[in-house]
């Protein structure tokens, strides 16, 4: 992640260059530059620079002059439905370039040697060594007089060599890790198949699918989507989001999807993108010194000053003793007298050398480098060096539930429909379940699942069905496929008019579709108690809609609580028929409840033991989740997080407390359910600033970014995490496993313990040697 100073440089560079770039682009357009022969022979009809400049300059007129999106796609020899043919990829990369940026050259090894030699401690040692060699040759001759000085020089050489090699390897490791971090997997359509590809393998002409939290991987044009809004602050510095539609179809690499979903046509990649051109002019800032290194360097400096004071004092004492015993007064000096003073100076230098703990910087470097290597082997990507140290002193972990404590592979195990609760057997086909549900109710259920989803069901090249989407959506679609195998057929029959993607505030997703029989129907799904409150009807035992009585509402609420007590994530699905209207707004009341679905997400193996390890080490584990209170409590008890004297509460209750009430409540708070991102942020802020705890926070969504930034150490999920969350985090947990978080804490403590032991040993030796040499020199004069 770029530093704040680098971000400012980028923004300034953008403003300075934009006018010049647009002027150049306009000049090229005016000249109507010829399409290179190489481009024509490759089967394309538009110059790469001309194509890139259209998006970069946000020039709608030039886009229209090329015939608009469809004509531009034709010039790129790509179908907006089929996507790029895999055999054309190498040809497109040859003409339009690779999706890679020119990287700043890595620092050479000699630069690390030079940086190490500039250390104050080593400079003092080198000066002492030179003086020692000079004095030794003068007093003892060659080669005997050089032994002490050469010994010091050899020690300095070893320290410089080991430190420089360690730092150099560490820089190479960070470079590799950073490259891995930037290797985002994006969803593209190729040859009618939707598949995941590396951002580095993307080519001009690819059809890319975007959803909330994604990073836009290249410059491109909007094809279709729902309420797509983009955060361009990384380029423009403006915090307001930009709404993308047919009237403003331009998408820039490096920006973030703030809301909605959509598809884009890639028009330029790599160094031809706006982001790539700016990267040429801006170099990234260097790494800052970590807190532990700063403290230890401070200790070394203080000890060096004490050693210098003792050295000066020793020289003064020995000189005073010599002058007091000197025959002939202080006016007459011989060569022997000068040699005696030189010997006193050598003694003082020796005391100074003994006092300086030259091994401290090396100990820190080796400990951190070793810990980082082990953490990478444990599937933890350390993005900031200080994270190793900070995690070692963490006193509290605020963790998500889904995907971190649980496996993040959900399946529908229970359903309540037509007044009856049914168990779904995972290992059996859906024929028995399908036959037990009225046809009308089953059809409404399938439509509610298939038409109100942001996920897709596709067939891979091997013929196997694959679902692209969140774990919850995947579980629902797998369940829906038990009733209706052809997902695309249902989607083709009904035209989707409007979709409101899932939102962490509303905790629901809505869709408005036109039915083949005529009329409109709105579908909604989401948090069970919220959707239940939007309903006034229910699908009855015969599949028809009937009024929802107060008694039935209580019974359904009990079903929801019962599912929650079984550690199930509960969702409700509902619909509402609407008369044809010019207004495409989706209603928020008057729905007919179709079903209550219970989705199981099993606890990961080893999580309970990992939680017990944290508690035994004095680290409090708190669960912060968007699930309902019953499900959250059930999972928390299964993991060992919620104890008999612990408190579990919902987000709305927490945010309604005063600061004083929160300070009394938080020490016993172990579970927060139905929480908003701001609730998590408030909890982290209170823990850090009011209770003075060192807090680690896990997060996977874009909305978790504020809490990750506020925490002492942010832990983003590598699999389920969005790019925004990963950029805000200090450590990326590559396998999304809570056990890995515990390993990070273990190695963090290991760093502190190892350095503490070394400091204890080093200071003991140095202080004893310092006092012994000082007393000996003052008493005996040698």
TrEMBL record:
Membrane-spanning parts: 120-139, 145-165, 302-324, 344-371
Major place of residence: membrane
Keyword GTP-binding attributed: no
Gene Ontology CC: one annotated term: plasma membrane
Top-tier EC class: translocase
UniProt-annotated location(s): Membrane
Keyword Translocase found: yes
Domain of life: Eukaryota
Reactions catalysed: Ca(2+)(in) + ATP + H2O = Ca(2+)(out) + ADP + phosphate + H(+)
Gene3D superfamilies documented for this protein: Calcium-transporting ATPase, cytoplasmic domain N, Calcium-transporting ATPase, cytoplasmic transduction domain A, Calcium-transporting ATPase, transmembrane domain, HAD superfamily/HAD-like
Keywords: ATP-binding, Calcium, Calcium transport, Calmodulin-binding, Ion transport, Magnesium, Membrane, Nucleotide-binding, Translocase, Transmembrane, Transmembrane helix, Transport
The EC number(s) this enzyme carries: 7.2.2.10
Summary of the function given for this chain in its UniProt record: Catalyzes the hydrolysis of ATP coupled with the transport of calcium.
Protein name listed in UniProt: Calcium-transporting ATPase
Organism this protein belongs to: Olea europaea subsp. europaea
